Amino acid sequence: MSTATEHGEHEHESWLAHHFETPVQQFESAKLGMWLFLAQEVLFFSGLFVAYGVFRSNYPDAFEAGSAQLDRIIGGFNTCVLLVSSFTAAMAVHSAQMGDRKQTSVHLIITILCAFGFLIIKYFEYSAKFDHGLLPGEFFHPHHNPDGTLHEIQPWIDGATTVTAFPPKTHVFFGIYFVLTGLHGVHVAIGIGVLAWILYRNARGEFTKDYWTAVDIAALYWHLVDLVWIYLFPLLYLI
Amino acid sequence: MTVEAGTHLPGEGDHAHDDANYIEGAKGVMSWLITLDHKRIGMMYLGAILLNFFVGGVFALLVRTELLTPGETIMGADAYNKVFTLHGAIMVFLFIIPSVPAAIGNFFLPIMLGAKDVAFPRLNLMSFYVYVVGAAFAIFSIVDNSVDTGWTFYTPYSQTTSTSVLAMTLAVFILGFSSILTGVNFVATVHKLRAPGLHWKRLPLFIWGIYATSVIQVLATPVLAITLFLLMMEKVLTIGIFDPRLGGDPVLFQHFFWFYSHPAVYIMILPGMAIVNEIIATFSRRPIFGYMFVAMSSVALALLGFLVWGHHMFVAGMSEYATMVFSALTFLVAIPSGVKVFNWVATLYDGSVSFQSPMLYGLAFIVLFTIGGLTGLFLGTLSVDVHLHDTYFVVAHFHYVMVGGTVIGFVGGLHYWWPKMTGKLYDEMLAKIAFVFVFVGFNMTFLTQFVLGSQGMPRRYYDYLDHFQPLHGFSSAGSYVLGVGFLIMGFMFIKSLMSGKKAPPNPWGSAGFEWMTASPPLMHNFHHTPIISRGPYDYHLATEEELFDGFPEEMPEFEHASRGTEEHATEGSASAETEMEEKAEADSRDEEE
User: Fold this and answer.
1) How high is the ipTM of this complex?
2) Of A6, A47, A137, which is closest to B239 when you measure between CB atoms?
3) Which domain holds residue B571?
4) Measured between CB atoms, which of B3, B180, B249 is closest to A40?
5) I need a labelling partner for B7 at 20 to 30 A (CA). Which of A43, B40, B328, B446 fits?
6) Cα–Cα distance measured from residue B28 to residue B40, given in angstroms and rounded to the nearest whole number
7) Residues 95-114, chain B, touching A (beta carbon < 8 A)
8) What global pTM score does this model have?
9) CA–CA dist B548, B537 (Å, integer)
């Protein structure tokens, strides 16, 4: 079997795979491949955004009522956490380009910590929804706390009047909420794995001023994860 | 590109590899299972795909046997529902979609580009194993309780049926990722790994077709993935998106599903067309007429494919304005399809046509695809579709496109490139006999179904009225003839593997780039990255004697280059390159005179 390293050696650049002629060609291929992958990620989420649009127009009351139950403060805070992580991911690329291995590691670690922070905050949000029975479809049983006491639901404005009784089909909102945020959460978890792998490779000294493709590509993925949330947050929490 | 002689240490083992072909270059089962070589991955795909084709074919024959007589023939109604579902699901997801791109495309895309491999060899191997995992889930579903929803998994039935829908949708979800990874890989390869001199206007039309297919794979498949994911979530979490009992919308499922599955039709047919381009050019010894139009028609089909999904749902409950728009857009598809068919016929005109087995499949493709395409216009017409919807007319139409188009194209490509892939020639007589069986059997099976459908025989039905029996019987008989044809073909290929004569590098005398390497190709495809100084269909560059027989079986310039490597790598390649350019120039001068 012919592996990349075995053939790259006579080019004196161990990271240049045997089937590429030049480093530039390898870098551009990797970059193009990642952008294509991101395009398919966007289309993957687009199905859910379409579903959101369809059901929001079908059941506007239910979506307003459901949205009012989400905690904007926590959601907003989580948005900031992700934005910071995206910034540090970009900084990691920058320091990798400069050949500053230590700085790259620091930035990657902050990014990973932010990602964990995001998931932990999300865990508390989820458990609150579970406790209040704000669940998808047939599992939707609002008001009841685990100890049997009534949970105070957040009122919302319908026209000029304030309402507290859930309109029918509110469970559809929570169905979409859990699938959208859940899938996004899975992407965050995968991102943690990818970034940890990059951190490990950086610690081993695989990246130099001349070769930092993998850092760049992992950061691209992380920006997409961030970007999806930038759309999720206003759609689910704010409007 | 030029490897410095001094960097090759003798005894490194590397040098010996360079001259070995890809089959003999490494030994042992593991050397195949963990290979990063696109040719070996392509061959593994080919094996897996042919196995699935066989299984899907057996299910097809079971369906036709059950339909020999009204009422129960060999199985009960529930079993019948499962069998036709499995026929569809296996053929679509496990066979046709990966058939040409993942098997033949994997093998030939890098070679035709003059590259050593695809852009991401590890991703390529991963996509194969993802495919295997997906297939494993499909088998689990079949063994578990099978599926009886049809390959489309329409809600709400797929929510309520007790069969193993979850495992099958998960299988298709996973297979989708395999398809996406292949697509990403191919697009990046075509953009970034073309050999020097191979600009876009010189790309073989096979590459254009696979490129357009890959774009669809990347952009459409994720929508199927999310659709099936939501279907699974609907079943597990009851999210209420598709299930009307919870306020969901089953028609939304159909929109989502066909947003992928219509472009998927082009994932299936474009590679078939791509192969036919190569076959027609080689066996008429002419460049494809209107090269740029044919290339762009592939891209146009890929784009139009995204805009016409609604024509699957004319009677499912859409506004009539939406149906009119979808109908009009559907007719647009006829333009690029027509461009292809007319240009193929124009290529044949005045060509030096020879009727070897790959060409027979190429010509059959043109005929059968034309029938399949034209009957598509009936179905795209709103008023006619209301009558023909969900009848055997639809079944016949898409089998003419999928089998008469893609499968015939795939099989033609298999014949055409078999000597290159395996290094063995096959028995031409047996191949022609198999072709006659396949062609006659196919038309018997499906022409009949146009008639059945127009008379009102609904598709998917287990039972039917007595007066449909003669036509159903004839159709089933045709399916057996078709089956026998494929068995003869299988025998012919196995015989070739066992005792076929050694194939020369260019048995068909083609001008295509893939014939410029040895048969079977070397480990790294070429000793040196070739410099492309002519187009893939430049038959006018051949000398007068060659024009009749085609390009020489041994390409002199590459022979030279390979001899050069053994002694002085750098000089050998340089002189080969200049020689090749000189020859091309001299030839074009001759032409002018």
Assistant:
1) 0.89
2) A137
3) 524-592
4) B180
5) B40
6) 13
7) 110
8) 0.89
9) 15
